[in-house]
Each structure stands twice: as C-alpha cells, then as structure tokens.
Amino acid sequence: MNMKLTTLFAAAFAVVGFCKTASAVTYPLPTDGSRLIGQNQVITVPEGNTQPLEYFAAEYQMGLSNMLEANPGVDTFLPKGGTVLNIPQQLILPDTVHEGIIINSAEMRLYYYPKGTNTVIVLPIGIGQLGKDTPINWTTKVERKKAGPTWTPTAKMHAE
What we know:
about 160 residues, transferase activity, LD_TPept_cat_dom
C-alpha cells in the first residue's frame, strides 16, 4: 500500500513539475560573435528536502532531462539534503540565423529571438514519439479493479 502512495505522489509531482517547466529564461545575446550564453549555477538541496528533482528543474526553468544529465547519481524522486546540484544554464546557441523560432530537438529546447531586441528566450520542450500522436477526444474507463495488481510490458513494448 505504501508503494502505491509513493508512486502516486511521485507521479503527481512529475505532472506539476512538467507543467512548471513551460517557464522561459531570457538571455542577452553575446556581442562578441560568440554563441555561448548564460552561466551554470550550483545550489545545495536544503536539509529536510521533500521535493523531487523536477521541482528544482522547474525552479530554474530547466528541462528534467538536462538536470538528470548534469547531476548523475542524484535521486530523482527525493534528492538528499546537502546534495550539490548543478544547474546547466550555460548554453551554446544553435549555429543558424538568430531570428524567429528555432527548435533544437536534440537539446529539447526552443529558442525564440524577438525582433528588435538583443535577447533570446529559451524554453525546455518535450518530444513525443513519431507515429504516437496524442489522442483527441480520448475517453477512458475502468474495466476492472484488482488489489495489488502487477504489470508486465507487452511483446510490442519490448520490441520498441
């Protein structure tokens, strides 16, 4: 029973964390012709922490995948108090014209260059799987309930 609550709690925090990551970070464009923007930060997780890594990603407007890459070995669900987290806010701008919207799917980032400014707005993005469109007008129902259910990936899932 405790495992179910923990899983539900983690999923709820993940949803909240992913919703918050829609925040953007605005960087000034480099004037020296460089493509390097921003500065990495280091923070310490507060003692008695009850927040998942997604919380810290959202707090600093970072994607979860970027936080995981910058902090290998950190507990995703509950980083321990005193843990040092690297916040990877130093970026290399895409090698392209700096105007309009540029999506770098490999980095999972959207770059927006507003007209008439010397800034770039960067947002983390999520990418689905090709051919796996989000259903429209999706209706679900509970067909059966079972106490302590198990789940086994299908052969199709293993193949993917």
